[in-house]
Amino acid sequence: MRKRSEPAESPEELREKIIGFGEHSGRKSFYPELRERLFTLERFRSLLDHTHDAIFVTEVAGERVADVNQAACRMLECTRQQLMGLSIREISPALADLIAEARNGQVVTSLCARSGHRVPVEATVAIGGGAAGRDAVIVARDVSERRRAEQAVERSRQGLARLAEASLSVMSRTDPEGLLQGLSEAALALTGARMTACGHGLLTGQPLLVGSARAPGMPVNPPGMLFQVIRGGVYMELLEGAESIRLTDEQLRAHPRWWGLPDRHAPIRGLLGARLLGRSGRSVGMILATDKEGGDFNEEDESLLKQLATVASLALQHVEARISLEEADRRKNQFLAVLSHELRNPLAPIRNSLYVLDRAEPGGEQARRAQAVIDRQVAHMTRLVDDLLDVTRISRGKIQLQRETLDFADVTRRAAEDHLSAFVTSGVELEIAIPESPVRIDGDRTRVAQVIGNLLQNAWRFTPSGGRVSVSVEVDETPGQAIARVRDTGAGIAPEMLPRLFEPFMQADTTLDRSKGGLGLGLALVKGLVEMHGGTVSVESEGLGRGAEFAVRFPLEVAQRVADAPRSLVPVGGARRVLVIEDNVDAAESLREVLEFGGHLVEVAYTGAAGIEGARAFRPDVILCDIGLPGMDGYEVARTIRSDPQLRDTTLVALTGYAAPDDVAKAREAGFDLHVAKPPSMEEIQQAVSLRSPERRAAGLPSTGP
User: What pTM does this model have?
Assistant: First the structure.
């Protein structure tokens, strides 16, 4: 009889012995029963061998392995013959202790494979009994994958905790320099690197702001050693669209863009990097890490650094937006102070001149000088207000260009001639180099002249006596552009001012005396008007005291178009009956006196209701009506007058400060014949009073406003 310590017979061995015994003894009657039991045993053995859990059958007393399945063989890297008779204590002392105590139970332990590798398992021990003694059945499940998953989850949890801590550290910084420094320090702790660096705000490929951090004992990089792009670099991939890069040291030095390190640069080993994004979604910087402690950077390090870079990008965008808002608020406050100064300045000479007019001999030299002063200062204030309105209209898309085919060279020449006297008076030489041949563009004549005029005024203001300003026109056939250049030998422009020079309220002259004047709107108007024509504007300067050159480019006219003929205006000679409806008493009475000087018969009303009553009694030829009247506004006045059969042929003129295109359209709908923006020139007033209604109404509503 086989001893229990001996290996159990296999089903194949047992089958051969049974068959041999039957044939030897001649007893074949028990074959079917034995054969059925044998097949049952074989099916059970096949079932055990196909399970994924390792199964061991051992003696309770001797702790010897009596039987195993194929999964146990695979787990321990042994054959069945090698495991049979082996002590279970050699495989797992914890399982052996349970068996020795002859008790059922579960244990989490590890089994030692033949190679020495330990396999983590969850094992269940069941103690059985029988006539020949007691056996223990051990079912062991490999939990290696679960352990790895749990470890990955724990690493991820720890990584996210580190990321959260690093993100809070980055988000707490309120200035770009401090934020980049915090980002470098956070990346150092997050990835286990020994050196990190980040750059942001690229100018010709070179970061304007940098931050760096290093582990204790790492050498310091001298200033200017980080992010040298003279010959390009591996990290340039991040600026060209790559979300991240991860290279071993071998891969780094074999990279086609690797060109070594500058002299005195700290040594590096491997590279991990992630890009920083701006509000446009384009790369504006990067964060780099190198020399990881204990090996190479892995996928987890790369993922964490990418997430940190995302947080840092948002933080940088937030900081930039806040700084931009603060700068806009500062410029707004500065603009309001400048506006107050610029509007107050003309008031002093106007008041002084009024004092002189009150005391000087009428028509005398003193009176004429005082009148000239008032005229100049009013014109100056009008230009200030017009500039403000134009900037507002451009920003809101309210300006409508009156396009026509025009000679750009001729418009530029006339604008230069109009400003020539200012240059002569200031002792500044104005050179005009404009071809005689026409340069055709499709544009608004008035607005194009305004662009050239603003550039010339800017050059005149900032060029001292004895300096020189030149204006030229040329044609670039390749892109199809007409180009006007205004060069000066004046004050020049500081490099930091160049990118913001065309922003509203941006001024180079910030001195207390404001000797150059202006609101800082002229160049913003130039940019807006040129871009509305589909053109561009640029500026170049070598620095303060080196002069500047402005260039505007307009698309050349491709197909010559016939400009719309201007509407004909039919003047009526002689004195006219004029009703002025204006709630500002000074404005109404002064306008009355101006019109009476022209020989017209004038009545004044200060409200809309009084104006309608006066119109029915006075029967005027022309009504000059304000829009912003108390109670009944000017639109309602116009509608009421148009509904009166006795007044419907009266010429209605809107004389108002509401001068946007929408305001002109509303005036037309209300029944006005003409729209004149305040303050009107004497010529505009005379023209408005001299026009007859039927022709104006048939032609549609023009506007003499800006």
Answer: 0.47
